[in-house]
From TrEMBL:
Sequence intervals crossing the membrane: 9-34, 54-77, 89-110, 147-166, 171-189, 195-213
Protein name, UniProt field: DUF4386 family protein
Organism: Oceanicola granulosus (strain ATCC BAA-861 / DSM 15982 / KCTC 12143 / HTCC2516)
Keywords: Membrane, Transmembrane, Transmembrane helix
Length: 226
């Protein structure tokens, strides 16, 4: 398998982890208030005490699996862009690897939080305090903002468009998603911008995956990559 095709598969995996995360947020974790700004901390602690494996599986998928797939995609896109725009490729590659590192770190901390809170299940107050502390670190690394991700998607989209790898559709989706990610730095707009970033990123990852897997050999590939 070539690096380009591996990157295409990695992009689809990234999209899949986002879809998985959204589905769990609106179904399994809906009673906990995740993503609403009104998380029910006692409910979270109780849930972790009863089903820590579910929470760890969720964290592992949306953070760790995503970060590893993202690393492959970053390298694949860097290789493709470098032949035409070496400086842009270098910048995009650096930002992308920073984002992948932050996502991986957030996932590791999130899983440690679950393990530690589960160990303190007999003392709900101490467990809640610990969870809030570790969650703040998790959110600071990237779970609560999308600045690094927004910057990478925006830079890659513009560089790939200039290089002829992406067409206007893929680049446009990336520009909207990337800008929304940068806007998450503003507290009043954080939640809305985060939702736009997440949904836009799903569409962008799928488009990029198809471009890398199919190239310009099909009509759909030409529409996205030409």
């Amino acid at each position: 398998m070539t690096l380009t095709k591996a990157g295409g598969l990695a992009a689809l995996v990234c999209a899949g982890t986002y879809i998985f995360g959204f589905v769990f947020l609106v179904t399994v974790f809906a009673p906990l208030g995740f993503g609403t700004g009104e998380t029910d901390v006692p409910a979270v602690v109780a849930y972790i005490a009863d089903r820590p494996g579910v929470m760890i599986a969720w964290n592992t998928t949306i953070y760790i699996v995503n970060a590893l797939a993202l690393t492959v995609l970053v390298v694949a896109l860097h290789r493709r862009i470098a032949s035409e725009r070496p400086d842009a490729a270098a910048l995009a590659g650096a930002i992308g690897l920073i984002w992948a590192t932050l996502v991986l770190g957030a996932g590791m901390i999130a899983n440690v939080a679950v393990e530690q809170v589960h160990a303190l299940a007999a003392d709900p107050e101490a467990a809640a305090e610990l969870w809030l502390t570790l969650q703040a670190v998790e959110l600071g690394l990237g779970g609560g903002n999308e600045i690094a991700g927004g910057a990478w998607i925006l830079v890659v989209s513009l560089a790939a468009l200039a290089s002829g790898i992406f067409g206007r559709i893929t680049a446009g989706i990336g520009a909207v998603s990337g800008f929304a990610g940068l806007v998450t730095i503003l507290p009043p707009l954080g939640e809305t911008a985060g939702a736009v970033f997440g949904l836009g990123a799903i569409a962008w990852f799928v488009a990029v995956g198809l471009v890398l897997l199919r190239g310009s050999r099909t009509t759909f590939g030409r529409g996205l990559a030409a």
